[in-house]
Amino acid sequence: MNRQPEPEHRINERIRVPQVRLVGDNVTVGVYPLEEARKIAQQQELDLVEISPNADPPVCKVIDYKKFLYEKKRKEKEMKANAKQSEVKEIRFTPGTDDHDFDFKSKHAEKFLKDGNKVKAYVQFKGRAIMFKDRGELLLLKFAERLTEVGVLEGMPKMEGKRMLVMFAPKGSKKPAAGAKA
């Protein structure tokens, strides 16, 4: 038994409602009885495709179904290609991180945020350094203050095991919109 998978849209004979709202090229938009809508589609040698089944009455379009699916797939692929994958970059400190290291790591975090990535900053406590939780918290809050221009703090520092961590999200895009004048 080799059954075909159920199509994602109802087409032609699979549409089972008394009347439909008809749209499409070379079609007078309006509400038609189902049989009349099918005849209009057949006259143009196209398919009647239910594109909005939850509307009242359901919206059907007169189009070539195979071409419709191809265009839809192509648009989805294009949107997926244009969607930027943001990563989470990690920056590690210790309770005794000195100023030079702090500045160096802050510059890296700024670059990551400007590139549209999230930044996860944490203070790693080893051995007896766990006694200096307040130092770690102060360090992360100082780091948050440094990044206020390019990033948004997503919550106060919190302990997870032997780490105290915070997350930063990039602020809205700094690039002017296409066609807009700065």
Structural summary, described in words:
This protein is α+β, with helices and mostly antiparallel strands. It is about 30% helix and about 25% strand. It has four helices and nine strands; from the N terminus they run ββαββαβαβαβββ. The protein has helices at about 35-45, 65-80, 100-115, 135-145; strands spanning about 20-25, 30-35, 45-50, 60-65, 90-95, 120-125, 150-155, 160, 165-170. Strands 5, 6, 7, 8 and 9 form a five-stranded mixed beta sheet that branches. A four-stranded mixed beta sheet has the order 2-1-4-3. Strand 1 and strand 2 (about 30-35) form a beta hairpin. The longest helix has 18 residues, at about 65-80. The chain starts with 18 loop residues before the first strand and ends in a 12-residue tail after the last strand.
- Contiguous low-pLDDT stretches (5 residues minimum) are 174-182
Task: Report how far apart the termini are.
Answer: 64 Å
Q: What count of helical segments does DSSP give?
A: 4
Sum up the overall morphology in one term.
rod-shaped
Report the strand count: 9
For the residues shown, what is the average pLDDT? 84
Helix content: 25-40%
Kindly estimate the percentage of residues that lie in beta strands according to DSSP: 25-35%
